[in-house]
Specification:
Blueprint: H1 8-20, H2 31-51, H3 61-66, H4 68-73, H5 77-86, H6 88-94, E1 106-124, E2 127-148, H7 151-201, H8 204-227, H9 230-241
Helix pairs in contact: 1-2, 2-7, 2-9, 7-8
């Protein structure tokens, strides 16, 4: 009995899996039956992940004074303007028709925390120390991603990005196996060359040693090639997508800052 067709949402997700992970997966007639049951929970996980993002927060000059978060993220109000001016994403967004539909836009803002230690004045209890170690926390390398003119549209793009991130993480494992295959092929060729040299020299002991190494490499190479066949990729992929939290999750941080 053939499996029922996937919903349009799940079909698009499966098409994305094939496009990102391995195009030859699309040749498997049972792919939908294998992936269908795990795709919906994975997409739901991505929805919850994006829903748990804090915000939205207004980022502008007044917010720098009124919001402790915005004040902590930027050294000054001018740095907000500099970030917007330097952002390639902002430049590209302003070229789109939707940019003319609203005076504001939504995006995910990311920044890299930096720490610097200096000597300075600080209280230790009621005693003022002149050589206390003071740690300064600031944020740099601000990046805006998935700009749109509505919160819902940005959230949808972030959900797609989260799903793609999962797929790319799994794909990195396949890439490592392909790189291993290349190394094994090079090792096999080197052992074959050594066997020819030892055979021409009549060195039986070394010849047997290299032949044994060649057999081991060829066995590893066969296992590697087999593991990269599309029908061998599906089950590990299903297992990976069944536990997306292992590969993609947020860790909340609480920072206490003196303004």
């Amino acid at each position: 009995k053939p499996a029922p067709p996937l919903s349009p949402t799940l079909q698009r997700a499966m098409d994305r899996v094939c496009a990102v992970v391995e195009p030859t997966l699309n040749t498997l007639p049972y792919l939908g039956k294998k992936l269908g049951p795990v795709l919906e929970p994975t997409l739901e996980y991505c929805r919850h992940l994006v829903a748990d993002l804090p915000g939205p927060f207004v980022v502008d000059r007044p917010a720098f004074s009124s919001s402790p978060l915005i004040h902590a993220l930027f050294p000054s109000t001018d740095d907000i303007i500099v970030m917007l001016g330097k952002s390639q994403s902002v430049h590209e967004y302003l070229e789109t028709p939707e940019a003319t539909e609203s005076e504001t836009f939504y995006a995910m803002l990311a920044a890299r925390p930096q720490r610097r230690r200096n000597l300075g004045m600080a209280y230790d209890g009621k005693v003022l120390q002149s050589d206390a170690i003071i740690e300064y926390l600031y944020f740099a390398d601000h990046v805006l991603v998935e700009l749109t003119n509505s919160l819902e549209a940005t959230q949808e793009k972030l959900r797609q990005r989260a799903f793609d991130s999962l797929l790319k993480t799994f794909r990195s494992g396949l890439k490592a196996k392909r790189e291993e295959r290349q190394r094994l092929q090079e090792g096999r060729d080197q052992e074959r060359d050594q066997i020819n040299v030892m055979r021409s020299m009549g060195n039986a002991a070394k010849l047997e040693e290299h032949q044994q190494r060649l057999r081991e490499i060829e066995m590893q190479l066969l296992q590697n090639i087999e593991s990269l066949r599309p029908e061998r990729i599906v089950d590990p992929l299903v297992e990976f997508l069944a536990a997306p939290e292992k590969a993609l999750h947020f860790e909340k941080m609480t920072l206490m800052l003196d303004r």
